[in-house]
Specification:
Distance between the termini: 34 Å
Helix content: 25-40%
Number of domains: 1
Radius of gyration: 16 Å
Order of helices and strands: EHEHEEHHEEHEEHE
CATH superfamily: Metal-dependent hydrolases
Strand content: 15-25%
Largest sheet: 9 strands, mixed
Bound molecules: zinc ion
């Protein structure tokens, strides 16, 4: 048996750039025979859809609200829902797996840390740290930044990125011996022309199980087409 997972999915309203709600997004993945998805919305240092002057705890509660709704809907329709968090520094993005809501509530100090301090701290706390689409270029990104001493792995296939962007990420990963992940960076639910994700021979139980598989390099990276007519909203 093969079990398909999307490791990089955004939902609205928590991600301001999201174009699809939680239920629509989950029902789409269910219809595409996925076993599960990781909800990886933009964190408080990124495109979170809440005024940054609100208290940390209130923003954390809002941040987790889409994930918690996804857990409920996932149970209802039979799609596993896992947690990831996409943290950002000026357009340089990292996917963090394995830390839960209580951990984030307990650690407001991460908001004051440089990424070169925050990433090793999270790794030390048990997180898997993946540099998402490291070679992405965009009008809001001044320059490409790499953190080769602060990550476990690299997202070497991101469905929205060019072959050049993904090929460079793959070369970066090979050069340093990093683990590799693939994900869609889906912001649009069913309106996404191409999906990317990871396949396992056995079903994933939880985030720690996913981390074990990524560190063991025993999941297969894949892409699949889903013909529609949409533009990159991120
Ligand atoms: Zn993303
Ligand atoms: Zn986004």
């Amino acid at each position: 048996m093969e079990y398909k997972y999307d490791t990089h999915v955004h939902t609205f309203p928590v991600s301001r750039c999201g174009r699809a709600g939680v239920r629509e997004t989950l029902e789409f993945y269910k219809s595409k025979d996925y076993d599960g998805i990781f909800i990886t919305n933009h964190f408080l240092d990124g495109n979170l859809n809440m005024d940054p002057s609100e208290p940390y705890e209130k923003r954390i509660e809002f941040y987790f609200s889409d994930y918690e709704e996804a857990l409920r809907i996932g149970k209802e329709i039979g799609l596993k829902v896992f947690l990831g968090v996409e943290i950002s520094y000026k357009g340089t993005d990292f996917l963090i797996y394995g830390l839960d809501k209580q951990w984030y509530l307990n650690h407001p100090e991460i908001m004051e840390m440089e990424k070169s301090e925050e990433l090793p701290f999270m790794m030390n706390e048990g997180a898997l740290v993946i540099h998402a689409h490291p070679y992405r270029e965009a009008h809001y990104i001044d320059h490409i930044r790499l953190y080769p001493r602060c990550i476990h792995g690299v997202e070497t296939i991101n469905a929205w990125r060019s072959d050049q962007c993904n090929d460079l990420a793959n070369y970066y990963a090979d050069s340093f011996g990093f683990h590799k992940t693939a994900g869609s960076d889906n912001h649009t639910g069913r309106n996404i022309p191409k999906l990317a994700g990871m396949i396992s021979d056995e079903p994933l139980m939880d985030e720690s199980d996913f981390i074990r598989h990524v560190l063991a390099d025993d999941m297969r990276l894949f892409t699949e087409l889903n013909p529609v007519d949409e533009q990159d909203p991120s």
